[in-house]
Structures are given as C-alpha cells and as structure tokens.
Amino acid sequence: MENKITDKELASFVRVGQKIADMNGYIPPEAWKGVYMPTVPTVPIEPAVCRPIHGIPHVLLEDRHDDFYNGYCFAGSYQRWPENPDDTIKRVFETQIGGLTLEQATFLRRFTLRPGDECSMKPGTTWDVPNLQVSSLYFCLAKGTPRRGKFYPMHDLPDYTLNHHRLFADHLRAYLLRREWMVLHDGIRLDGVARASQGRWFCTSDTFIPSNSWEVSTIYGETYGEEFRTLDAALEFTRKQHTHWIIFDDNGQFVTSNAD
User: Fold this and answer.
1) How high is the pLDDT of residue 32?
2) What is the DSSP letter of 40?
3) CA-based angle 218:221:222, to the nearest 5?
4) I need a surface site. Which of 69, 101, 141, 235 has the fewest CB within 10 A?
5) Neighbour count for residue 78 (Cβ, 10 Å)
6) Which residues contact 144 (CB under 8 A, 6 or more apart)?
7) 136 CB contacts (<8 Å, ≥6 apart)?
8) What DSSP letter does each residue of 101-149 carry, written as one string?
9) In this predicted model, what pLDDT tens digit does every residue of 185-207 receive, in sequence order?
10) Residue 177's pLDDT band (boundaries 50, 70, 90)?
11) Torsions phi, psi for 71 (to 5 deg)
12) Which is nearest to 185 in space by CA: 113, 91, 257?
C-alpha cells in the first residue's frame, strides 16, 4: 500500500520544520538522519589542508568512526543555513581541526556522489557516502600544528581511507600538477579539448587534438586514447609512451603531459 501523509501530519511536519528553520542552521541529529539525509541532497564542504613536507605534497587526515563514516578522511562539514562556504571552512578549522591559521582556501571543483553508485577507483565497490552529496573540494594552506589529525603523502594514503576521499586526493594532486605545468610552460592551452568519464582520467596523444574547436566532443573514449581509474595509473601510462601524451580529468581540464 502506498504511503500517504494526512493533512494533519503534513501540517505538524511543517510546524516542526519552521521551528528548525529558526534554530540558525542547527538540525537535531534524529531529524537529520531520519528526514533530511534520505530525501534532500546535502552540500559537504571539504577543506583539504595541504602542505609540502620534505618536498612531497601531504594532506591532513583524521581517523573517523561514527554512524556515517569508518576510516581516514579530510575534516569537513555539511554547509549549514545561512553559511556561505567560507563560513563553513572557518567553522571546520575552529571546531574540528584546531591549532591552524588558515592562509588560503582555493575552490577546486564539485563532486556528485550517491550511495550505491560504483566507485570509479575500485571495481565492484560503491561510494562510501551515506546519502546523495554535492561535495565542494577546497585546496587549503594553513600555518601551525593541528590538534586533530595527521599529515599523509597524497600519493600514499592509509589503507582505510574513505574511497571518495581518495578521489579527492587525486584531484588535489592534479591541481598541483596543473600549477607546476603553468609555471614551467607559461600557461595551459588545452582545457576542454578532451575529457574522461566521471571519476576517471583520460590519456590521449596530441595527434588526436583537432584544430577545429567544434570537433572537441569527438575526443572521448577508447578510439582516441586510454582511460584510467586513478591518477597514478594515468601518470604511469604516459611515462611509458615515446610520443607526446596528455592527461585530462572528467571536467575536461588538462592535468599534465609527458612532454618536457
């Protein structure tokens, strides 16, 4: 039998919802888990705290075990009403991390993740998210010593790191590779000419790059290159090639190339 809500139940629900709306963004855990998470997409803000240690890019992780997550992850929080992302990042630094002074928070990109969808990094597994999430990833630099968490190399995360945070770490690394290329080669001129499928990395030879910008949509798929589940696999592939190959992400952004 189809579930139906009576007018009385709906009116009661609206009254409670209005009370919650007056609580300045605080939602009782029971309401959050029972009503909002199963029905409304959430917006996690993921301020990844990054720093070079002995010349190697590291990211701050904490070992989390609760009703929602079980493993190593970035500090982060759902964006609350009436916060903007900067407010949420500030709250995360103050209430979750502690001991750090934020110097820079650069927005990188958004990810749409659903429970039950296949994890692009590990065949046969699904994303370890508790609900539909539209996550915003930020590359953050900060001074000080965190009161919680520990820095780990981005390319060598702990075994029990949440799989969607492994994906985030790959995109942090891609951001750094892009910056390095821009400095060494006076910019990037190939954004948008190719792209990977969602959550993956696409490698293509420069011989497939068209001169006509209206042809860019054809540079996609196995005909024109190779697609990989992880950034490491894509980097390893391009290193082995004897001609000029390029890596693109699933937004069509140029990441790096094996060219000098």
Assistant:
1) 78
2) S
3) 125
4) 101
5) 18
6) 99, 100, 101
7) 43, 44, 45, 46, 79, 85, 107, 109, 110
8) EEEEEEEEEEEEE-TTSBPSSSTT-B---SS-EEEEEEEEEEEE--SS-
9) 988 888 888 889 989 999 998 76
10) very high
11) 155, -175
12) 257
Cα distance between residue 103 and residue 227, in whole Å = 36
Burial 207-230 (b: 16+ CB within 10 A, else e): eebeeeeeebeebbeeebbbbbbb
3-state secondary structure at position 254:
strand
Q: Phi and psi dihedrals of 174, rounded to 5?
A: -60, -40
Q: What is the DSSP letter of 213?
A: G
What mean pLDDT do residues 7-28 have?
83
Please, are residues 86 and 105 in contact by the beta-carbon 8 Å criterion? yes
Length of the chain: 260
Query: What domains, with CATH codes, occur in the chain?
Result: 7-39 (no CATH), 44-180 (3.90.79.10), 188-257 (no CATH)
Supply the DSSP string of 147-206, one letter for each residue.
SS-EEEETTS--TTB-HHHHHHHHHHHHHHHHHHHHHHHTS---TTS--PSTT-EEEEEG
| CA pair distance 91, 145, nearest whole angstrom | 17
Q: Is the pLDDT of residue 172 over 50?
A: yes
Mean pLDDT of 83-88: 96
Helix count and strand count (H, E) for the chain: 6, 11
Residue 74, token pair as written in the block: 């970035």
